[in-house]
Specification:
Length: 545
């Protein structure tokens, strides 16, 4: 929002108009306003932040971890971007429109946009960038949404040499035709994998491009010293205006260097760091001027239930198991209050999220068909129920003890299994032997579909709960093709309500984003996807340069 406020200073403005040539009382040119804003925000300086691992590549198509993701968000832009509230906004595409009831998307590129090497960005680069994602191995998380483009599946299988649904209309306009209406498609284009790369430079040597990337974002690549640092500098021809920072220095901390990272931040050698443990928070407690950032992420920590395995195929038993756990006690006592208890499946910050009208425990108890909440003799003779965990730590054991105590009051016994090998753990939760499993889910993108469809659709590959409900399947499919955002949100809320009542999982809490900034940092606005998805374009340092 732009504002102009001269209240109390009108007399100064009149004197200046008399003394300064060229002052005619007209609004200031945009360039002058931008320059004055930059002066007020102490433009310049180097922003230093940690990477906890050395990225394998800085090519958006081959980045699979947060420590590469954050670098990519400074170097590249996509057709669209997300605002701090995760709404879609124009980026390289100045405008877009949706036609034919959601089957056609038409994107118009900005004029005079360029890559860091000075070459103009054209629709050919966009077509190349999206097409190559269809054949990347391993596949990007957004692939299921890109496969909705007409001809995408045939291109992925090498049956054709181009994607028929990607239709250039000159250098500045792209027409995208889908096989069927699919609303999450637009959100997928805002994810980092879909950022636009230069066709010529990328195709000539893909491996080299990942080590010496050329993007169109607010910062350009300068150097990469493996296991030491990555250096970026301001891109002076950025369409969104020059960044306020001169440079960004990523310092790479290899495995088991958490203490060194903490020491560097404590001594002012980093502008930010993740708060990855209670010990970090305690160590920094004495630094009064620090800025602490905490919010729920787009995630859910839960116990998944094998809905096909007796006696857990009884929805009443699943509801009782879920309702009997005191989530607040678990978060406060075991996790020191760090997370937000889950009363819904959708996390706060997810578009379409709605705070519950009543506590989850009450909803589950109302859904139990039998009279009375404590079915004392019904489950007493039942064999013990097993929860499997991929982690065996004192905190996990404290969590299991709390659950064991809660279920004992119902006459339900609990056993635990710990499988530390991740591959073995995944094989086990896919097997018929699993009963309950500890799991966390992070949304691939800020769309309700990415929380509900992958976990609960009957044909979803991550539905390890073996949950099947034809009504919910129909709702999830209908929502994918519903353009009206109000109607779409209503469909998802109905689906979520039915899922919660069916209780194929036990929602426990939403994991959090925790970052600490130095007192001099200004303009940082991490969204619910995480700080690794935030551009530093408008971040600045409040200190003399």
């Amino acid at each position: 929002m732009r504002t102009c406020n001269n209240t109390g200073y009108g007399w100064i403005f009149i004197i200046l108009c008399v003394l300064l040539p060229g002052c005619d009382g007209q609004p200031k040119p945009a360039a002058r306003q931008a320059a004055e804003k930059r002066d007020a925000t102490h433009s310049g300086g180097i922003y230093r932040l940690p990477l906890t691992h050395n990225p394998a590549s800085l090519d958006p198509a081959f980045v699979h971890h947060n420590y590469g993701n954050i670098v990519v968000h400074q170097l590249f832009d996509g057709l669209i971007r997300f605002d701090p509230y995760l709404g879609p906004h124009p980026a390289l595409a100045e405008t877009w429109r949706i036609e034919e009831n959601g089957l056609v998307y038409i994107f118009t590129l900005r004029k005079n946009i360029r890559f860091h090497n000075g070459r103009p960005i054209t629709v050919a680069d966009v077509v190349f960038s999206l097409s190559r994602l269809l054949r990347v191995r391993p596949a990007p998380a957004i692939l299921p949404h890109l496969l909705r483009i007409k001809g995408a599946a045939a291109y992925r299988d090498y049956q054709v040499d181009h994607v028929s649904g990607l239709q250039p209309a000159g250098d500045q306009t792209l027409r995208v035709v889908l096989e069927e209406p699919h609303v999450p498609f637009l959100t997928a284009l805002g994810m980092y994998q879909a950022m636009i790369v230069p066709q010529k430079e990328t195709a000539s040597d893909p491996g080299a491009f990942g080590k010496n990337p050329i993007g169109s974002g607010p910062f350009r690549f300068v150097s990469w010293d493996p296991d030491q640092s990555i250096r970026l500098e301001r891109f002076k021809n950025y369409y969104g205006g020059d960044s306020l920072l001169d440079e960004i220095h990523f310092r790479i901390y290899s495995t088991r260097q958490d203490q060194r990272l903490l020491e560097d931040f404590s001594h002012g050698q980093l502008e930010e760091m993740p708060v990855f443990s209670d010990e970090v928070k305690a160590a920094l407690a004495g630094h009064k001027a620090l800025q602490w950032f905490h919010r729920p992420s787009l995630s859910l920590f839960f116990y998944g239930i094998n809905c096909q395995k007796p006696p857990l195929n009884d929805p009443d038993l699943r509801r009782i198991l879920s309702a009997s756990i005191d989530r607040r006690q678990m978060v406060d006592e075991v996790f020191k209050g760090r997370f937000e208890t889950a009363q819904t499946i959708l996390p706060p910050g997810m578009p379409g999220y709605k705070p519950p009208d009543q506590p989850l425990e009450d909803l589950l108890r109302q859904a139990i068909r039998h009279d009375g909440y404590r079915p004392a003799g019904k489950w007493a003779s039942m064999p013990a129920i097993e929860i499997v965990s991929a982690y065996d730590t004192p905190r996990v054991r404290a969590e299991m003890e709390l659950v064991r105590s809660s279920w004992q009051k119902l006459g339900i016994r609990l056993t635990t299994r710990y499988i530390s090998d991740w591959g073995e753990f995944n094989d086990y939760i896919r097997s018929d032997a699993v009963q309950l499993y500890r799991y966390s889910w992070f949304a691939d993108m800020p769309d309700t579909d990415s929380m509900l469809y992958p976990l609960f659709a009957s044909d979803a590959t991550d539905n390890y709960m073996r949950f099947h409900d034809t009504t919910i399947d129909r709702l999830l499919i209908t929502a994918r093709g519903t353009l009206d955002p109000v109607k779409r949100t209503g469909i998802y809320r109905r689906a979520e309500e039915l899922i919660l009542k069916a209780a194929p999982l036990i929602p426990l809490f939403h994991l959090s984003i925790d970052i600490v900034y130095q007192a001099t940092v200004r303009g940082a606005q991490p969204n619910a996807l995480g700080a690794h998805t935030m551009s530093l374009h408008k971040v600045w340092l409040d200190r003399p340069q």
